[in-house]
Amino acid sequence: MTKKKMGLAVKVLIGLAIGFVIGLIVHYMPKGSLRDDILINGVFQFVGQVFLRGIMMCVVPLVFVSLVNGAAGMGDIKKLGKVGVKTMAFYLVTTAVAIVIGLGMAFLINPGIGLDMGAIEAVEVTASEGKPMAQVLYEMVPRNPIQALAEGNMLQIIVFAIMTGIALTMLGEKGKNVFKLFEDLNELVMKLVSMVMLLAPFGVLCLVARTFGQVGVAAVVPVLKTVAAVYIALGIHLAFVYGGMLKGLSGLSPVRFIKKFFPAMAVAFSTASSSATLPVTMDLTINKIGASKDISSFSLPLGATINMDGTAIYQGVSAVFIAQVFGINVTPVMALMIVFSATLASIG
């Protein structure tokens, strides 16, 4: 009788739980060389950063290669256009819905009412000046694609990759050898991702342990209502919006989907980065979920950059939180402006 091998999702979940417990234990240890230098800024930081940098190492080549594959793999510019329009519409709608849920939860919980501002340490922050919309749009076109790749400018990489994929499609037979090269490169990058993911349980453990070892639980108490509003809104969006669409449009069980997709969720939780999670998302979507390779290669890199629903929810809750702290009444018109501006702000 063969013993069943433990899956990656279970290993990552165990690592997440152990990291949380170890982090709290370390946080309440006496300050000193053992706690601060050897554990928090030593072992935890080293292992966590090795894992995180390994994932980030794969992000830029994965986004570029997979988008070229996805765009060229459609085989038809009209089909690519239809998929692109549907993808963008889906992303914008779900982001707007996410903000509405975030606002609704914030109005229900009222995170900024009764908050003692004296309990929060003041930090001076200089706000960056916003760019005009026209500048944002034309800066998406890279003057130097190599520089965009080297700097990890995702919007420019996406534009360059899609244009390259369209050019390959227009070349027809002449572009088949180049397309085959990109398919092989995609397989190579995915193999790199699977190698890095062997470290995932330990990387997640150390990232979580370091975070809670540094701040503990007490650090979030002054803004606990805000944190609760964000996470409840995230849960509602995941369970009812995405879960409902998953069941209604594909017939897949949301519970089974989450079980297969948990490693990506754990990496997202521990790194707080859509880009860092993308290699894991790509691997699971294609190899575990069985989604179309061309559609996944096209839509997922786009989604990691312009479909940040979690960020949108956080921005919606934060807007209400700040307004309530300073006694500002959020009118329906102001709420609509928050939905519009947060949808745009969540892109990139």
Secondary-structure topology with pairs:
Elements: H1 8-27, H2 33-73, H3 77-109, H4 133-138, H5 145-151, H6 154-171, H7 176-196, H8 200-215, H9 224-250, H10 254-271, H11 274-289, H12 293-306, H13 309-325, H14 332-345
Helix pairs in contact: 1-8, 1-10, 2-6, 2-7, 2-8, 2-11, 2-12, 3-9, 3-12, 3-13, 3-14, 8-10, 9-13, 10-11, 11-12, 13-14
Defining key terms:
mainly alpha, 77% helix, single chain, Proton glutamate symport protein, 348 residues, globular, 14 helices
Walk me through the structure:
With 348 residues, the protein is mostly helical. The protein has one domain (8-346): Proton glutamate symport protein (Orthogonal Bundle), CATH 1.10.3860. It is built from 14 helices and no strands. Helix 3 crosses helix 12 (293-306) and helix 13 packs across helix 14. The model has no long low-confidence stretch (mean pLDDT 84).
